[in-house]
Description:
Blueprint: H1 3-6, H2 24-34, H3 53-68, H4 73-86, H5 90-103, H6 108-125, H7 134-154, H8 159-181, H9 189-203, H10 210-231, H11 241-259, H12 267-288
Amino acid sequence: xxxxxxxxxxxxxxxxxxxxxxxxxxxxxxxxxxxxxxxxxxxxxxxxxxxxxxxxxxxxxxxxxxxxxxxxxxxxxxxxxxxxxxxxxxxxxxxxxxxxxxxxxxxxxxxxxxxxxxxxxxxxxxxxxxxxxxxxxxxxxxxxxxxxxxxxxxxxxxxxxxxxxxxxxxxxxxxxxxxxxxxxxxxxxxxxxxxxxxxxxxxxxxxxxxxxxxxxxxxxxxxxxxxxxxxxxxxxxxxxxxxxxxxxxxxxxxxxxxxxxxxxxxxxxxxxxxxxxxxxxxxxxxxxx
Length: 289
């Protein structure tokens, strides 16, 4: 008990935020209550101490077994498997579900179903992608997204649907990042990046990462503005302020969309980016006069 951290004396009642669950039932009940959230739309919930409930549960199960041995091992292993599953650590989740299945208890049947699903998840997550041709690589990413989309439909309305959506979004974002890194090697590379961000936002409008994607898209337009100013000296005759400010205004629109959203963690960052962009635009205008 962390009496000092809780601000209690030995005679005072401890702050419940700093009291570890007394038994396995409390650990599992809190985990089940907080771990059912849609991890695609919402961040992983925190427990009363502000810790990721999935990571906290794994630590508490370790502590429980150190103190009480291997009693109720099927419950412990199934809960561990579920925590690793939600953390998208499929190899560890599979290992714990297999232990439950071998035990043959009441949880063996649900563990078998989860095991079969996660073996498919793991197979898709480990898909090898062609690396020699950038267009073949992009096609490989598209094929992986199609596989995740099939699992989204198959597991509709379950936590596995949410995980498949997270995985599909991750690949969609990776595709945009790949095109952005290779845009100078691709025909109409800049336009392909804009298209990629636009598709990412339209496909994942309900994602918890939606505002992060908006900020990243805005950052890309700022890079275009800076690159244009580097290639064309603002103090020279070839600089067209309308082109520069076209990129900058596109970025500003995206940052402003995030800055106007109350209750999102990215709002403060968006406001900072807006101020920095205004400074860049003012400095460039002065040089161009």
